[in-house]
């Protein structure tokens, strides 16, 4: 570009750490709104047209999901259910009875439901785009025109869209789409989830993205969340270098997690069954940091037998000879109810008899589980650690660790998921062999926001300095007492936040195996001093948004 052109930058939320350079291709504009002219066909014919198009759309979406597989399949299945939703179908029929055409009735019924979701905010609000996509597809089917979708091109491009529908993201041609930029969507939107899973370089929620014209050259930097328009030669060259370095790193053999100065940060896997073990090992998991045993028994009506559990735990431990495997005792209640441990009549199950409290009220279930774990440990070569969920007092810590040792388990710790445990971490860790911080629940309880409720989903952000302050309390206690402090909530899967958590004293990080590569490469970019500086920076801010922004820009300058 010539010297007097101005480089401008747009910003949003980056997904992953990649960088790409390419030219923009815009997603076509949506279909025009169907006209509100009265039907000439009559209600019965219009209802039949609507019914047939809703069913055909559901079938097409489901078929695309089956072709795509993975989490795309679940996302598309959820969209197919939207097209089959009986309440929506009733609303469409009622609007047709009121004189609408099928096109207009579908458009209005979906729009009304969309407004409802948006008013709920957070996670539910982010589902609104899925609904718009289904609506467009049904209207296109009614009109006999092709459904809107990703543009075709012979050459690779940077796709710019308002927000991609799951159906589009799932079927993106990864050879052609260099990166994705959307004007809408947040870090928990389906586009973000799928981009993460498919390792598509993406920046979502970019204000001004729709002003990007076809053919504009851009750099899309997911690490900083920046989209640079018409870059200078230097900017382009440095982005191309970084992309090449990323490709080289991705094809390099996976090594253990470590910071740039060599400080080891073992990276472990969160698993819910032994079936995921081989994949976790292939992705470089150095062991298991959280085995959610309740996932094995979600449908069970009676407590599982010692023999059944011994078989399940043995299968898990056999996959990790010589490696650490942290198994959590049944965490029943709230988001993970087990009928043999929980009373469904509680009004506030997250604050009720859940986790260790429920086990203590049914001690034979806990004894059986620990007995089965000790038997599996004796039969295998893994280094088994056990921990209790939802521990809120020092006395509970004493109860669990004593019982575990009495039943033959050598390493017994607790999860720190409640602020009281974080605040008394020095006393908790004087008793327990280790602590593992569950940032999902710790955030829920610190911000007083039910993690299952879409309307308060925006509070569920572990970057919040109040949450980080509590993590720091546990890190400090662990360092003083020489006890390990792991992180096993979703926070550990956010690469930059993972660095902050290490700066706060976390000694291991555990996450879903898909996140291991990005976290490993981000850790390798920073020293322990830097991690501590980022942690101090995040702690000094007043909100999750400011903490994330401050650390993101500090990291961009390193
Ligand atoms: C890891 C955690 O446990 P779960 O998500 O299973 O409640 C947590 O709360 O962060
Ligand atoms: Mg939890």
UniProtKB/TrEMBL annotation:
It comes from the Bacteria. Residues 257-526 form the PEP-utilising enzyme C-terminal domain. Residues 11-127 form the Phosphotransferase system enzyme I N-terminal domain. Phosphoenolpyruvate binds at residues 292, 328, 440-441, 451. PANTHER family: PHOSPHOENOLPYRUVATE-PROTEIN PHOSPHOTRANSFERASE. The keyword Cytoplasm applies. This is Phosphoenolpyruvate-protein phosphotransferase. One of its GO terms (cellular component) is cytoplasm. NCBIfam families: PTS_I_fam. The active site is at residues 190, 488. Its EC number is 2.7.3.9. Its cofactor is Mg(2+). Keywords: Cytoplasm, Kinase, Magnesium, Metal-binding, Phosphotransferase system, Pyruvate, Sugar transport, Transferase, Transport. The lineage of its organism: Bacteria, Bacillati, Actinomycetota, Actinomycetes, Micrococcales. SUPFAM superfamilies: Enzyme I of the PEP:sugar phosphotransferase system HPr-binding (sub)domain, Phosphoenolpyruvate/pyruvate domain, Phosphohistidine domain. It is found in: Cytoplasm. Its main location: cytoplasm. It is an enzyme of class 2 (transferase). Residues 157-225 form the PEP-utilising enzyme mobile domain.
């Amino acid at each position: 570009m010539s010297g007097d052109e101005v480089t401008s930058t747009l910003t949003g939320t980056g997904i992953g750490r990649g960088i790409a350079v390419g030219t923009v291709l815009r997603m076509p504009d949506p279909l025009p709104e169907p006209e509100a002219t009265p039907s000439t066909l009559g209600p019965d014919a219009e209802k039949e047209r609507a019914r047939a198009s809703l069913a055909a759309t559901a079938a097409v979406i489901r078929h695309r999901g089956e072709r795509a597989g993975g989490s795309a399949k679940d996302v598309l299945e959820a969209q197919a259910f939207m097209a089959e939703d009986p309440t929506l179908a009733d609303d469409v029929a009622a609007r047709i009875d009121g004189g609408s055409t099928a096109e207009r009735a579908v458009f209005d019924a979906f729009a009304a439901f969309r407004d409802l979701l948006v008013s709920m905010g957070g996670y539910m609000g982010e589902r609104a785009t899925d609904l718009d996509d289904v609506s467009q597809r049904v209207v296109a089917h009614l009109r006999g025109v092709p459904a809107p979708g990703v543009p075709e091109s012979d050459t690779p491009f940077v796709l710019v869209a308002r927000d991609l529908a799951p159906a589009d993201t799932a079927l993106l041609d990864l050879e052609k789409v260099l990166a994705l930029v959307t004007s809408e969507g947040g870090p928990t939107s389906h586009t973000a989830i799928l981009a993460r899973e498919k390792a598509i370089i993406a920046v979502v929620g970019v204000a001004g993205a729709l002003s990007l014209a076809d053919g504009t050259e851009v750099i899309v930097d997911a690490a900083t969340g920046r989209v640079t328009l018409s870059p200078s030669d230097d900017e382009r060259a440095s982005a191309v270098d970084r992309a090449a370095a990323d490709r080289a790193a991705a094809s390099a053999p996976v090594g253990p997690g470590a910071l740039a100065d060599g400080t080891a940060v073992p990276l472990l896997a969160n698993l819910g069954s032994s079936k995921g073990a081989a994949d976790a090992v292939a992705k470089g998991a150095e062991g298991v940091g959280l085995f959610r045993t309740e996932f094995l028994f979600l449908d069970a009506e009676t407590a599982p037998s010692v023999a059944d559990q011994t078989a399940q735990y043995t299968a898990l431990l056999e996959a990790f000879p010589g490696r650490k495997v942290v198994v959590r005792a049944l965490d029943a209640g709230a988001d993970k109810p087990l009928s043999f441990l929980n009373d469904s009549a509680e009004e506030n199950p997250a604050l009720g008899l859940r986790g260790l409290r429920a086990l203590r009220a049914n001690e034979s279930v806990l004894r059986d589980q620990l007995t089965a774990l000790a038997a599996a440990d004796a039969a295998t070569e893994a280094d088994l650690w056990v921990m209790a969920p939802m521990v809120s007092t020092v006395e509970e810590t004493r109860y669990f660790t004593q019982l575990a040792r009495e039943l033959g388990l050598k390493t017994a710790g607790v999860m720190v998921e409640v602020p009281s445990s974080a605040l008394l971490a020095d006393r908790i860790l004087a008793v327990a062999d280790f602590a593992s911080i569950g940032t999902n629940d710790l955030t829920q309880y610190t911000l007083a926001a039910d993690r299952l409720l879409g309307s308060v989903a925006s509070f569920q952000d572990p970057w919040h300095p109040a949450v980080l302050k509590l993590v720091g309390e546990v890190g400090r206690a662990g360092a003083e007492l020489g006890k390990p402090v792991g992180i096993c909530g979703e926070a550990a899967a956010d690469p930059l936040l993972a660095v902050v958590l290490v700066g706060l004293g976390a000694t291991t990080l555990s996450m879903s195996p898909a996140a291991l590569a990005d976290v490993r490469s981000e850790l390798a970019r920073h020293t322990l001093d830097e991690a501590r500086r980022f942690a101090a920076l995040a702690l000094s801010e007043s909100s999750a948004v400011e903490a994330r922004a401050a650390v993101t820009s500090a990291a961009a300058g390193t």
